[in-house]
Amino acid sequence: MTGKTEAASEFSLGLKIQKRILWTLLLREIITRYGRENLGILWFFVEPLLFIVGISILWTYFDSRTVSTGTLAEFSIVSYPTILLWRNTTSRVTKAMYSNRPLLHHRLIKPVDFMYARIILEFASVTASFIVIYIVFLLLGISHAPADLLDMALGWLMICWFSFGFVMIMGALSELNDAIEKVSHIILYFMLPISGILPAYIVPPSLREYLLLFPLVDCVEFFRYGYYGMKMKTYFNLEYTILVNLVLTLFSMSLMKVAINKMQRS
Amino acid sequence: MIVLENVTKSYPVKYGRSHHVVLDRINLQIGRGEHWGILGRNGAGKSTMIRLISGAEIPDHGKVSRQMSVSWPLAFGDTFQSALTGRDNTRLICRVYGVDFDHAIDFVEEFAELGSYIREPIANYSAGMSARLAFAISMIVEFDCYLIDEVIAVGDYRFIQKCEQELFEKRGDRAMIIVSHNAETIKRYCRKIGVLHRGQLRVFEDVDEGNAYYYSSTGSGEIS
How many CB atoms lie within 10 A of CB B127? Predict the structure, then answer.
C-alpha cells in the first residue's frame, strides 16, 4: 500500500517538476526570441499574423476569383494558418537539442524538453494569431461564424496532433544527420500538395482517394468542415486519421529517443 | 556517494571514421564531504569527466551512479545563455531549481558586483565579469557535491578570496571535485587526487605523491 502511494507522490512530484521545467524553457524561449524591447512579446502573434494577412491580401487582389463557397480571403484564413503549424515549427525544432546542450548540465532538464518547449510556443503562437485574425475577419464580414465550433476546434487539434508527430520526426532527423537541416525546406515544399491546403473536392475522385491517405489532408478537411459545414463538400475519414496519427506519434517518439541517445553519447 | 565504474568515453574523429578514446575504463569513488582534485594536461579528459559526472553526457561503457545531488560545473560561461542578461540567467536557474528569485538576485548582485551590467546580455561581459556572475549564480542552489572546472583560476585576487570564502568556508562540508592542470591549485584545496594521463585515471591518497606522478608522467615540469 505504502509503495503505491509513494510511487503516486513521486509521480506527481515528477509531473510538477516537468511543468516547472517546461514553463522555464518557454519563458526563456520567449525572451531570447522576442527580447524585452520594442514590440517584444507582441511578436508572439504579430509575426504569423502579418504572414496570414499578407497571404490573404495577395490572394484576394491578385486572384479575385471567388470559389463557390465564398471569397478566397475567407478560404485562406481557414487554410493557410494550418501550414504554419507544421512548417514554422519544423524550422524551430531543427537542431533545438544540439543548440541547447549547455543547459543539459542541469539534470532536471531532459533533452526532449527543448523540443516540447519550442513546439508548445510555436503552436500557441500560431493558434493565437489565427484566433485574432479570425475574429477580425468576422467583424469585417469577410468570414462567417463557424458551422460547428466544436468540430472546428477538434479539427485544429487534429492538425496540431499530426504536426506534433511530423515536427518530432523532423527534429529527431536533424539531430541524427546534419544534412537534414539543409534539405528540410525542400521536404517542407514537397509537403504542400499533401498539406490539405487545396480543398479535396476540386481534386479528381480517382486522385482524391490517394490524397486522403495522407492524414494531414483529412485533418485540414475536417477543420474546414467545422467552419463551412455543408456549404463546402469536404472529405475525411476520422477513424483512419486518428489511427495513423497515433502510429505517427509513437514512431516519432521512438525516433526522438534514438536521436537523444546518439546526442548524449557523442 | 558518487561512483564511476569502468567508465569509457570516446569521441568520433575524422568525420566518424574512427574514435578517439578520451577516458579508458576509469574508476572513482567520491564519498560525502571529500575534496577531490583531478589533474591533467589540456585535452587529458578533465572536462569530459566533469560532463559525465554532471550527467550532461552518458558514457559509452561503464556506469556513473550518484547518491547525492551534483551541481552543474562551476566554470565560467558555457552553462549560461549568452543572449540573456545576467538577471534573466539568474531567473532561469531559480525557475529550474525552484529557488526564490528575489532572495537569489540580491545575493548575485552583491557578490558579482556587476552594477548595471546585470541587466545586459552576458555576450557583452568581459571574461572576469562572466566568471563572477557564473560563480554567484552557482551559489544560489545548494548541492551535496560541487563540480569545479578551473573557475577559480580566472578571477583576480579579491574574487578568488570571495570564492574561497563561499565555497570552502561556508560549504566546506560538501564534496567537491576540482579539475585543473595546475598542481598548486589542487594541492591548495584537495585532500585526494586523481591524475588523468593517456585515458587512465590514477588515484592517490596523498596529494604530493599525485603531484609527483603528474610531473613525471607528463614529462614537463609545468611551473605556475
Answer: 11
Query: Which cell is A13 given?
Result: 512530484
Calculated CA dihedral for residues A108, A111, A116, A121, nearest 10 degrees: 90
User: Of all residues in chain A, what percent carry a pLDDT higher than 70?
Assistant: 92
Domain extents for chain B? 1-69+146-156+174-224
Q: The dihedral of CA A174, A88, A75, A219: what is its sign?
A: positive
- Across the interface, whether the CB atoms of B96 and A264 are under 8 A apart is answered no
DSSP labels, B155-181: S-HHHHHHHHIIIIITTTTSEEEEEES
Predicted TM-score (pTM) of the model is: 0.86
Segment A166-202, tens digit of pLDDT: 999 999 999 998 888 889 989 999 998 899 988 899 8
Residue ranges of chain A with pLDDT lower than 70? 1-4, 36-41, 60, 62-69
Q: Which three cell numbers stand for residue A210?
A: 490517394
The answer to whether residues A234 and A202 touch, using CB atoms and an 8 Å cutoff, is: no
What ranges do the domains of chain A cover? Answer: 20-265
Q: Which of B57, B61, B137 to mutate to test the interface with A (most CBs of A within 10 A)?
A: B57
Å between A41 CA and nearest CA of chain B: 15
Is residue A61 packed enough to be buried (19+ CB in 10 Å), middle (13-18) or exposed (0-12)?
exposed
A107 interfacial to chain B (CB closer than 8 Å): yes
Q: Which ipTM was obtained for this model? A: 0.80
Q: Using only C-alpha atoms, what is the Rg of chain B?
A: 18
Is CATH 3.40.50.300 the classification given to domain B1-69+146-156+174-224? Answer: yes
Phi, psi of A33 (to 5 degrees): -80, -45
